Amino acid sequence: MIEQINNIKQQISNECFISKEYIRDLLELLSKINYEQFQYLESNQFYLSLKALDKNSLIETALKIQDQYQETEKSKQSNQQQAKPLKSFNVAQYLVEEYEFSQYFFESKIFSYEELNKDLINRIHKLKVSKKSSFLISKDAKEIGERISQIPHLSDLKLELQQNMIKGIGAVGLGQGIGTCLNMKSLYINLSENSLAQGEFSGLIEGINKCENLQNLSLILNQNNLAQNSIHQFGVQLGKCLKLNELYLEMNHQKLIDTSCQGLGIGISQLQGLKKLKLNLQYCDIYEEGANEIGKAIQNCSKLENIILQLNGNRIKQVGAEQVARGIGNNKNLKEITVELMTNLIQTKGGVFIGQELANCTNSTSLSLNLVANSIGPQGITAISQGLSSCSQLKKLNLQLDSNSIASEGLASLGVAISQLQFLEILLLNCYTCKIDKIGGIKFGESLMKCTQLKRLEMNFQSNELACEGVEGLGRGLRQCTQLEKLVLDITQNKSTQQSISSLFESLSYCQKIKQIIMEISSQFYQSANILCPKIGVLRNCTYLNFLKIKLDSMSIGQQYKNELKVEKIKAQKFKRLVCLKFN
């Protein structure tokens, strides 16, 4: 029995598809098992369903059948009587329901629709076609659409067709096939890096519009150099998918002029039932008016509960930032908000506008704001902080402020706002190269003293000027975070000293519920592991600590240092529950 299974596995692994001879071998093996409905195995359904699946799925199925056969034999031996028939095992149905069909389903050399039993087709509800980088042309895309149209009960479809040579007419063919699937509820299509610019592709969404029950739509169209009028028409047609609850649209590295954004805005604003929207338009040369259209569209989707807006690498200034923020601020039902505006042209006034609108997000529980590499400045972050103080329901806050020169004034105001968020449990704060000095560290530490409910805290203050006093100030704040379970802290290149780092470890010893610590510190004061490791000995009071990682910046650890670390790691085994200790 086992030898036969191994032979079949070897034969399958050596072939790109499964031949009829191998199927007969498996059927002969199956004939030794007493099934109540063995006639199902005698039909072509078993053969065809195997042909449609990849080799790993077939191997797993064969092994499952082997296990059932062995159980039958054991039963015979233990009871010394003829085994009862196993529970009916409908192989064809099992394969259809347990696995997503692979690309083999769409290769004409392997599969013929004329042979396929209608009963098997009717069982297909979920289908995945993965043909990335497969040199597909428009004709192939149209054929896939035709074959999809022959599956009447399809409700969940995933097409991974990126990095091919499909033109606009091929996308239209896909849309026509998808449009026949009236039971479709969830649809994912990735056509990134194709040739959709050649020909009209808006017919894709026209076909999708015919799926009257569609609730979840994901369209990935990156790097296609689409014509601007096509994008406008595409956006308008998108607005006809009236039953959508979730929309994910990604068009990165695609130039979007004002009229293109207008078309997208018109379409999105018509989707009144949207609860979740993810709009990924990074590096699209979007200017003020384009951002304005996006903001107005978001404002009209009044039922939104979750929004992810990725506009990194565009040319958005003050007015554009204001309109985007206003669109979000006027949605009172929003619970989770992610806005990414990294490397735009937003200055202090834009930060003020963002802060004013954030004050309206009073029902939000999660907020992520990425303003890296703009010019917000101290006044801009102060306005944003004032807005944050009104978000009283926040449980998670993620602020990416690198390269914004917020200075100590800005960090201090941010600390005051955070200290007023009584339900905040997760704080992620990046302030790399923000011109923060020791006053900022001390003031922020004072605010941390009031954040007694924090469970996860990640802070990056690399390349500032906290100095010894600023680091110690942060430590005093951490001492009061008694509910803290995870800390990630980067204070490299801050002119700290051995004394300040020792003080920081001592403060952490008061966080007795902490489980994970990842800390990056300057190595200039720790040329010997015998100096560094005793400093962390105070953490023995943290009885739940199971992961501790100390990263030393810009340091090449020699053999002597490695030997010292081995000794110190052995000493660290005395820590209660500590199961992982890493250096660098």
What does this molecule look like?
With 584 residues, this protein is an alpha/beta fold. It has a domain at 2-97. It has 22 helices and 16 strands. It has a 16-stranded parallel beta sheet. Helix 16 (377-388) links the parallel strand 9 and strand 10 (396-400). Helix 4 runs parallel beside helix 6 (91-98) and helix 13 (288-300) runs parallel beside helix 14. The chain is globular and about 75 Å long. Residues 12-20, 34-49 and 83-116 have low confidence and may be disordered.
List the helices and strands and how they pair.
Blueprint (H helix, E strand, L loop, with lengths): L1 H12 L6 H11 L8 H4 L1 H9 L2 H25 L11 H8 L19 H4 L4 E5 L7 H11 L7 E5 L7 H11 L7 E5 L12 H6 L7 E5 L7 H11 L7 E5 L7 H12 L6 E5 L7 H13 L5 E5 L7 H12 L6 E5 L7 H11 L7 E5 L6 H12 L7 E5 L6 H13 L6 E5 L7 H11 L7 E5 L6 H13 L6 E5 L7 H11 L7 E7 L6 H4 L14 E7 L5 H14 L7 E4 L1
Parallel strand pairs: 1-2, 2-3, 3-4, 4-5, 5-6, 6-7, 7-8, 8-9, 9-10, 10-11, 11-12, 12-13, 13-14, 14-15, 15-16
Task: Provide a brief overview of the structure.
The chain is built from 22 helices and 16 strands.
Record keyword descriptors for this entry.
584 residues, 22 helices, alpha/beta, 16-stranded parallel sheet, globular
